[in-house]
Amino acid sequence: MFQFYFLSILVNFFAGLVSASDFLGEKFQRIKGFKESFSTPGIKIFLGLLAFIIGIFKLIIPVRIAVVGDLIPAIAGIVLGITLMVDFYKSKSDMAPERPGTLQNIFVGQKSFIGMLGIIASILHFLFPRVIFL
């Protein structure tokens, strides 16, 4: 379905921007305004849930090509969704863990890298819609 194709591109791009906003804010001045307005907890959880759900649907409902054609954007959406949801939970949690958990180390510790991969995956998926694995 083309709706999921378009939503996947948009959500992966914006979820990647929110995840990588710390890194990109240092490099580009225009991203700083985006970072301040889109890094609120409500938007993080909304984009996280949306990216996760659309990633799952991209695995279930492929567009024209078999499931392999939507594999990278689907995985990117799922990972971006988990990253934003764990980051949201970390920012809302009152308890400070004795040591960071595995999810926090993997997803929140690498959120700029994961965000950049999500942006790249969404751009490549937009530019090359019928290429296998994109």
Please give the domain count: 1
Q: Separation of termini?
A: 15 Å
Q: Outline the biggest β-sheet.
A: none
Helix content: over 70%
The coarse overall form would be globular
Oligomer: single chain
Which ranges are low-confidence, i.e. pLDDT below 50, for 5 or more consecutive residues? Answer: none
The count of DSSP E runs of length 2 or more, i.e. the number of strands, is 0
Percentage of residues in DSSP E strands: under 5%
Number of helices: 7
Gyration radius over CA? 15 Å
Mean of residue pLDDT values:
79
- Please identify the structural class as seen in this structure: mainly alpha
Element string (H = helix, E = strand): HHHHHHH
From the structure above, extract its key features:
mainly alpha; single chain; 7 helices; 134 residues
Would you summarize the structure shown here?
With 134 residues, the protein is an all-alpha fold. The protein has helices at 2-19, 21-27, 30-38, 41-60, 71-92, 102-108, 111-127. It contains seven helices and no strands.
Describe this structure in words.
This protein has 134 residues and is mainly α. The protein has one domain (2-127). The protein is built from seven helices and no strands. It has helices at 2-19, 21-27, 30-38, 41-60, 71-92, 102-108, 111-127. Helix 2 (21-27) runs antiparallel to helix 3 (30-38) and helix 5 crosses helix 6. The protein is globular. The model has no long low-confidence stretch (mean pLDDT 79).
